[in-house]
Write a structure and sequence with these properties.
Layout: H1 12-42, H2 53-62, H3 67-90, H4 96-110, H5 114-121, E1 130-133, H6 140-148, E2 155-156, E3 161-162, E4 170-174, H7 180-188, H8 205-208, E5 214-218, H9 225-237, E6 239-240, E7 249-250, E8 254-259, H10 263-268, H11 274-280, E9 283-286, H12 290-296, H13 300-313, H14 318-331, H15 341-355, H16 362-372, H17 377-391, H18 394-401, H19 405-413
Parallel strand pairs: 1-8, 1-9, 4-5, 5-8
Antiparallel strand pairs: 2-3, 6-7
Helix pairs in contact: 1-2, 1-3, 2-3, 3-4, 3-6, 9-11, 13-14, 13-15, 16-17, 17-18, 17-19, 18-19
């Protein structure tokens, strides 16, 4: 490979194939050094000088890449490793639903075609907004963080650093935490004197977010339709105006939204504008419930308990994780619904560490006991209605029960079994 050089002597296809092969050879050779830099940068407020870049640059140039192309590929290599690490940290498990989620997150960052991304869309993903859907506790915040901290950041040859600290490019905002009269200020900012108590100018989320960053709007289903109209301007024209201001400002980052509510129900009830939905839905990612993941692969519980216990304890302990899993198996029925999903499992582990027991959510267990008393179609109706109360999403019910969406809706809307 070192004897080959990109030139007019070779066809365009041969040159492209060579460059891809050269990139991956060098990328994998330096992946450990890039990972070390990612860890160092995550722990620092300042932008850390990447020690791996001189060697990576030299390797690319020795394989025939031009200076400009080599610098461009440094940015891509850094982004690829950040995405891999971020997705690996946020999504644990080997079940089919978990693997599908990892694939969806990866495609959201790089598209389904890495060549298309690298040659055309790298640094141009700001118009690809995303909606994350899933019941409470499924990890929508962690998934959003993986997307947000894996965005493109260019290598700056003059400064010898990347242009941004990737750990600072993700700006989360839980919309349900703010009252209606404060949400606009949080999103768009306000000028001094814009309202009573506005004693100084304040930058909102869209102004604080860098051009290479992402704003995460959690619980978008709780957003008032009047504010949705103002957000449409951000999505369509990439502009916003602070409360009390006159001059529009530009937003160059990416928007990620999430809700545990059913988009169909929100739109039907008029709580989400159709035009707002259509501007947000470049990509819609469904996060599986914990029950779906365990039904697909029961061994996923072992991986999740180990990871969560390590996070809680600060150090891995295989013996303690095994003890926690044994307690779960002893205290909870095998088909336990886990209505609180990953968040509930994490608190379950804490409860076991404190008390050596966990008896589950009484409401969920009550429904499961009622199910056991009912046979046939009535039990399926009750199960569908319980799942819908957890997810507010007919599609999630259909996936959990292995039925089509229309049948799931019929069961959910049926009279409750006596």
């Amino acid at each position: 490979m070192t004897n080959w050089r990109r030139s007019e002597r070779h066809s365009s296809a041969a040159n492209d194939a060579y460059e891809r092969a050269a990139f991956y050879v060098v990328f994998h050779r330096f992946s450990g050094e890039i990972d070390a830099h990612i860890k160092k940068q995550r722990a620092s407020e300042a932008i850390v000088r990447p020690d791996f870049v001189p060697g990576l640059l030299s390797a690319f140039e020795s394989l025939g890449l031009s200076d400009a192309r080599a610098r461009e590929r440094i940015s891509l290599a850094f982004q690829l490793r950040r995405a891999f690490v971020a997705i690996d940290r946020s999504v644990t498990g080997a079940s089919a639903p978990t693997q599908h989620l990892r694939e969806a997150l990866w495609n959201n960052i790089f598209t389904h075609d890495l060549g298309l991304y690298a040659n055309t869309l790298m640094g141009r993903m700001e118009d690809f907004s995303t909606i994350l859907l899933g019941p409470t506790g499924t990890g929508k915040g962690a998934a959003a963080s993986a997307i947000g901290m894996a965005g493109y950041i260019p290598w700056n040859a003059k400064s010898g650093r990347f242009d941004e600290n990737f750990a600072k490019t993700f700006l989360p905002l839980n919309l349900s935490e703010y009252s209606a009269n404060l949400i606009e200020s949080e999103l768009f900012g306000h000028e001094k004197g814009a309202f009573t108590g506005a004693i100084q100018r304040r930058a909102g989320a869209f102004e604080r977010c860098s051009a290479m960053g992402s704003v995460f709007l959690d619980e978008i289903g709780d957003l008032d339709p009047t504010v949705q109209v103002k957000l449409l301007r951000v999505l369509e024209a990439r502009q916003f105006t602070p409360v009390g201001g006159a001059e529009p400002r530009r937003f160059s980052g990416r928007i990620i939204a999430a809700t545990h509510r059913s988009l169909e129900s929100l739109r039907t009830a008029g709580r989400m504008r159709h035009d707002f939905y259509y501007r947000l839905c470049s990509d819609v990612i469904h996060l599986p419930t914990l029950r779906e993941r365990l039904d697909a692969d029961p061994a996923e519980l072992t991986l999740l308990v180990s990871q969560l216990a390590t996070r809680i304890l600060g150090v891995p302990s295989h013996a303690l994780a095994a003890s926690i899993e044994a307690t779960i198996a002893e205290k909870l029925p095998r088909e336990y619904a886990w209505p609180g999903n990953i968040r509930e499992l994490e608190q379950c582990i804490r409860r076991i560490l404190l008390t050596q027991r966990y008896t589950g959510d009484p409401l969920a267990l009550g429904w499961q006991e009622e199910e056991k008393k009912i046979d046939g179609p009535s039990a399926l109706v009750m199960r569908a209605q319980m799942l819908y109360r957890e997810s507010r999403n007919y599609g999630a019910v259909a996936r959990a029960l292995g039925i089509d969406r229309r049948t799931a809706k019929k069961y959910v809307d049926a009279p409750c079994p006596a």
